[in-house]
Amino acid sequence: MKKEKYEILKTPHSEALGAVPHDYYPRPQFKRDSFLSLNGDWQFGFGDKADGVIKVPFPPESALSGVEKLGTNEEMLYEKSFTLPEKFNTGRLILHFGAVDTIATVTLNGSLLGAHEGGYHPFSFDITDFVKEENLLSVKVKDDLSGAFPYGKQKEKRGGMWYTPHSGIWQSVWLESVPCSGIEALRITPSVKDVRISVKAGGVSRKITLRDTGEEFVFSGDEIIISPKTVKNWTPEEPYLYYFTLETEFDKIESYFALREIGIKDFDGIKRLALNGEPYLFNGLLDQGYFPDGIITPATPDAFRDDILLAKECGFNMIRKHIKIEPLIFYHLCDVLGMAVFQDFVNNSDYSFMRDTAMPTVGFKSRSDKKLHKNALTREIFEREAKATAELLHNSPSVLYYTVFNEGLGQFCADEMYKKIKELAPDRIIDATSGWFLQNESDVDSRHIYFKPVKIDGYTGERPLVISEFGGFSHRVEGHLFGSDNYGYKKFKTREEFEAALIKLYEDLIPLIGKGISALVLTQISDVEDETNGLITYDRKALKVDPKKLSEVMKKLYAQL
């Protein structure tokens, strides 16, 4: 594992790390009063012995975990002793894991609860019949980075655009007590005027109460369409949310929805992305979601908040969450603060530098994908995990757009995958192939343009045009570097040169907005390890641009629509 200066780079948020990190209810749109965090110190080791200590939920490779050891190809053992608070259990006890990378086998007091495969999605177990006064929870984890399961931007031999690998428990572990006939699921599907809420729960009666107005909606079935008296649409500029409680005979949860709609409309002969029926320029930043102290887990959720607020301050209204699924708190913050999210699915299967990067970069961007990545198991796993992502994020108002394949990584049968995801998420924009290897089916014309000025030659207006990656300008700030390597697409020695080049990049885009560009994604919000092409350094301590200057040129972009 290439560490270099890794151990001395820390974000300001590591100073706020408490004994129980991330001690908050992890599901903001499905919140009960019952909550017990199991984060904090666990016994930990490799093989069959947990003879050390790790701080959960930070991956063992990270500084914040206290371990800083690569666990690839070694089975890891986590153990946690706990007791329940008095009167905590009022029905059924549910043990939740936010995410564990990659294969987790869970036992409680020696009894097998079950196993879970895949490193990016939550899972849970009913532990009611296994819990005792004193309890020992054990989790065995295996992550061999085989490529069968989604792995994102991690690589055992990191460098360049590939980052330090991570494994193990990297999101919260927690307990809640659920009534025996409690609310099991909630599905929220909005439009610009009303919202369809589907409920899976025991009992007959349901009542939804809007917090701000006190409006009550009583129903007995599994679904209701709510039309609030006052309609306020969600936008990044005005992110209005309707908070509500859902009550049944046996249970009560808190949640929220927004009234908003993403679609495609013809404006003056050009297909454009439309937010709430109006043409909208989504102007965003690529966001890898990496931090030097926690790798893929920030020290606190404030690290997410600060990145979002920085993007807004610089004039951006969208984040492209790049090949990573975040904890739900991230999407909640985007909902609340007003930040549209273009969400990538996470790639699996093999990577070829020549096929997936070098040849497309010099212009060979067309090829059939029917015979690419032919392994039936990896195809099945990717499809399963992609669908799980769409289900997980369905309720989030800020998530407007899904990217299925990025730059050919793991790409296969993109037309078929587009249709399957579109059927599952008809209310989202589906970018089947971001960058290159476009097939026949996709909602957008999605292009990556590096090493040369952004041009839209050959654009016909038949699909919304999305420049889904561009820029990548690099500037190294001494004292805030991960290591000695310098990865970027155009390098600048001084902050002033970097800022001036970035502003000119956007000024040159101004006349192109009216000709069809619907969305822009600059690489990127922060430096990541060897990549020094962020607006802020990897440790989030040195800003490379003046937000006021950048936001002024952004206003000129928005004025074109």
| Count of beta strands | 32
Coarse structural class: alpha/beta
How many domains comprise the coordinates?
3
Catalogue the unreliable spans. Answer: none
Calculate the terminal CA-CA distance, rounded to whole Å.
48 Å
Could you tell me the CATH topology label of the largest domain: TIM Barrel
CATH class of the largest domain: Alpha Beta
Strand order of the largest sheet: 27-26-25-24-23-32-29-28
Instruction: Quote the average pLDDT.
Output: 94
Please tally the helical runs, counting DSSP H or I stretches of 4 or more residues: 8
> How much strand?
25-35%
Helix content: 10-25%
What oligomeric state is this?
single chain
**Backbone shape:** globular
The Rg value, from CA coordinates, equals 23 Å
Brief description of this entry?
With 561 residues, this protein is of the alpha/beta class. 16% of the residues lie in helices and 30% in strands.
